[in-house]
Amino acid sequence: MSEPEPAGQTSEPFLNPIYLFDVHLKEVEELHIPFFEERVKLEETYIANLTASHSKFRTKYANIDKSLKKNSSCRAWLEIAESVEQEAKSRSAFISVITADVLSPLVTLKNTHRRIRDQLKADLKETAQVHIDYCESTLPRLKRNYFKKMQDAEEHIPVPTTPLSHKSSPTTPTSLSELAHQGKRAIKGFFQEGTTKQGAMAFSDQKLAEEADREYRKGIRHAETLRLKRAAVIHRSYVVSGIIGLAKIPRC
User: Fold this and answer.
1) What one-character-per-residue DSSP string does 81-94 give?
2) CA distance 36 to 106
3) In the chain, which ranges are continuous DSSP H helix?
């Protein structure tokens, strides 16, 4: 049997729930997360350079003559140097905010999105496979068995040998009723007595036909249950992915 197409697959990609999950994942993985990760790296590089520059010139400041530290230009430089140090701290706090409030939730969203997507895809494939296998294999087998048993039962229906009364006119309603009644009694007596091989075989075939009928009816109900389960999974995937619509799965 050929591999079934993924359940929920449609000719329009924007109506395919798995496609929409992939689009959302691609947006988060290739746009949002990389942007903020690169922004964090830029900030970290900037802080490192800023801190290195500040440290280098603070060392030079420590080595200059104390008398020069009292002039206005040196005091102005010191104020600016201290502001650089504060800026580095502010940038570090900014990185912490981006990491905790933006990047971390985005990564969690990506992982959750992918887990839901993978689970839905597996559920869609499994329910489709089970439903298709049952409709293409099990149900036809039950149907063939049902018709075979019915045919066997019909072939072995006994012909009554008890002579029928012809006292009444065959053209009157009363005689027809009596004839039918006698025929029923003869057939019933034939089965009840079970004195012939044909009668016993007919009785056995009738039982087998009834059992095959029950199994076939049960199979039809089970096929419908599988179809509804498959449709429910597809509908759930539509809802989760943001598509409004109902799944339409053909019956066996």
Assistant:
1) HHHHHHHHHHHHHH
2) 10
3) 17-27, 33-63, 72-98, 104-133, 139-155, 173-193, 197-241
Which residues are within 8 A (CB) of 187 and not within 5 positions of it... i.e. 6 or more apart? Answer: 158, 160
Token digits of residue 168: 């009444």
Express each pLDDT in 45-100 by its tens digit: 999 999 888 888 778 777 776 666 667 777 787 788 788 888 999 999 999 999 99
Q: Among 116, 117, 120, 130, which residue's Cα sits nearest to residue 4?
A: 130
Under 8 Å between Cβ of 131 and 249: yes
pTM above 0.70? Answer: no
Q: What is the mean pLDDT of each run of 10 residues along the chain (252 residues)?
A: 46 67 90 95 94 82 68 78 86 95 93 90 92 93 90 71 47 48 54 57 79 91 93 84 59 71
The two three-digit tokens of residue 2, written as one number: 């050929």
CA atoms within 13 A on the CB side of 216: 17
Residues in the chain, how many? 252
Q: d(Cα 128, Cα 6) in Å, to the nearest integer?
A: 8
Place of tokens 């350079």: 49
**Distance in angstroms (rounded) separating the CA atoms of residues 53 and 59:** 10
